[in-house]
Structures are given as C-alpha cells and as structure tokens.
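4a-hydroxytetrahydrobiopterin dehydratase
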Amino acid sequence: MQQAAGAPSLSCKESRVGMSQGLAELKCSACSGEVERLSSDAKDLEKYLAEIPEWDLIKEGDVPKIQREYRMKNFNVGIEFFGNIRDVAEAEKHHPDLYLEGYQRVTVKIYTHKVQGLTVNDFILAAKIDKLEPKLSKYHKSKAQRKES
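Structure:
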C-alpha cells in the first residue's frame, strides 16, 4: 500500500494494523499479486468504516461490499458524478460498480472482484470518492437522516 507522493509507503499489513494517515491519503495497491481479503465481520471493519461514515456494509450473496447512495440534483449531474468517480477509479486502478436509477439516485458499490470480498483498497477508494463534491438534490438525506426517518 503506498501513500501519496513524498509520503512513506505502507504495506497492506501495516495499514491494516495501524492507520496513522487517513484512508484518502493512501494509494490503492495493485491486485496483480496476492491481495489480502479483510474479515467480513462488521466489528473487524469498524476502524475502516469509521473513516467513511456515509457508507454501509452490505452483503450480496456471500460477498461483503460497501455501498453509498446519493440523491443527485438531476440526471446530468448523476452522469457527471459517474465521470468524476471514473477519474478517481482510473487513477487508483480500482473500479466500483455504479448504478443510476430513477434519474437521480446514484448507488456506488465497492468490493474487490478478485477476492470476492473487501480489501483495504475498497476503503481507500471510498474515502477518495467521499472527497468529491457532487451536486446533491435538496432532498438528499445523509445516513443519519435516513436512520431517523
């Protein structure tokens, strides 16, 4: 696992044990070699999930994933957001699943296809996506607001 230019690099194991830097400052490692799959237990993933509080831990079949939903201002803004996510994903060489439904609702799902589960790369990518500033609908609700309703 590498950090941004000029910063010391961390291995997957080091970043898993003690993340002294934020996830968004780390760089996804290539999936060409051995990629360490994280436990799918929510308790084991708490330190990662704490850095991306708007994301939910989900399971589709036996595959754990992280997911975030957005309500965009309009269809074109949703498509523009896809392009911004594409740019981040290409830079990290790690790609999410993207969905646009009902012309406003964008859902981003991330997992590592190679291991059919979660790796540190997934949380790094989510943190980088969180740094994007999409034009949200005035009806968009945060995770906390959705829990209240």
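The chain has five helices and six strands.
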